[in-house]
Amino acid sequence: MGPLGRHSVMAHGYFTFPKLEGEISNRMMFRGKERLVWSLNNYAGLGNHPEVRKADADAAAEWGLAYPMGARMMSGQTKYHEQLERELAAFESKEDAFLLNYGYQGMVSIIDAMVDRKDVIVYDSEAHACIIDGVRLHMGKRYVYPHNNIQNFEKELQRAQRLTEETGGGILVITEGVYGMSGDLGKLREIVALKKKYAFRLLVDDAHGFGIMGATGAGTGEHLGVQDEIDLYFGTFAKAMAGIGAFVAGPADVMQYLRYNMRSQTFAKSLPMPMVIGSLKRLEMLRTMPELRQQCWTIVDALQNGLKAAGFDLGNTESPVTPVMLKGGLGEATHLTFDLREKFNIFCSIVTYPVVPKDVILIRLIPTAMHTLEDVDYTIKAFVDVKGKLDSGEYARREMMDAAAFMQ
Predict the structure, then answer these.
(1) List of residues 6+ apart from 79 with CB closer than 8 A
(2) Residues 178 and 171 sit within 8 Å (Cβ to Cβ)
(3) Can you give 51-86 as a three-state secondary structure string?
(4) Pairwise CA distance, residues 216 & 197, whole Å
């Protein structure tokens, strides 16, 4: 087993693979008790919005889950799939967009389709797993630069340029808009500024930025004023849209190329109609109901400012993603998590080694439009309590916790 799998016997069902039950909300049921939940990427609060629920239900009743049958290239194309692509392209100020079944496999397949062995990929060291897996498929050279280190990024560009001058290939730069674990933003302004000096195409994975960042919610490119300089913009429906599916937007000729060359779409069944109709409704709400995004940011600002005022380290986040970084090991993390869930009825994601260094406990909070200021105040008080126990060594003195002991 891997580093996480070694602890599966004691962790499964509580620390890993937990079951959150009930309506998607700021409060849900966990092991028979109501908990305040900070672990859902439901930024705009659409996950259980009555208009969304109705759109999903009506589409399922009218179309069922099977339609359309087959891959889009063969028999799975509909006017609604095309409509969603047009609306996504307009929302992102791009010529065209291509609808994808899933975000993870979509990104893997985009990378696979966009490069051949003559090309070079340059990517950020903290890129999401879907980017890493896409890069692994590449049969040519790939160069990685330390996270958001623009000086080192340019050195890798220089290496890539020298190589492509020999091979006749091109350079694909891949970064994220919002980094989902740390909440900081990709250095998009600095990256696009180097386009004047180097010839490369920029692919931005904005899974955590789409729908919540920017003046209209169009994403991190809009937020930083560089949307026009992003060649390929990737967004997923799994975060702010609270759905399933994804898309890539960019020049019309590139989108047409991807329609005929992305293996994950050519050889996979089309996105079912309820998900397409539901996504049209979600996109409409993101466009026409800015109060959803504004409410999310109200909670974000209150939570992050309150935690900072209480002395917590949130790193360099500039997004709703709120990482609270503490010092401690795996045993201390289990006790801290248990206290949050059982003493304070707060459910949030705790990240430990090997995702972060061995001496770091990262508590990842996701504020949403469904949370309240009362939720924020209560959570900050609870965090002050558990941090006091952590700093005093109380958690270190306890024995490693076995979830099976209290999973009765």
Answers:
(1) none
(2) no
(3) HHHHHHHHHHHHHCCCCCCCCCCCCCCCHHHHHHHH
(4) 31
If DSSP codes are grouped into helix, strand and coil, which group holds residue 237? coil
Q: What is the pLDDT of residues 211-256, one digit of tens each?
A: 999 999 999 999 999 999 999 999 999 999 999 999 999 999 999 9
Cα separation of 7 and 220, whole Å? 37
Residue 325 phi, psi (nearest 5) = -105, 125
Q: With 0.85 as the threshold, say if the pTM is over it.
A: yes
Q: What is the pLDDT of residues 297-322, one digit of tens each?
A: 999 999 999 999 999 999 999 999 99
CA of 269: how far to CAs of 45, 65, 109, 142, 273, in Å? 29, 12, 15, 31, 11
- The pLDDT value recorded for residue 9 is 57
H-type alpha helices, 260-401? 263-266, 273-288, 290-309, 330-338, 373-392, 394-397
Count CB atoms within 10 A of the CB of residue 340: 23
- The structural domains of the chain, ordered by start, are 5-37+290-406 (3.90.1150.10), 50-288 (3.40.640.10)
Residue 331 CB contacts under 8 Å (≥ 6 apart), including other chains: 395, 396, 398, 399, 400, 401
Write down the mean pLDDT value for the chain.
93
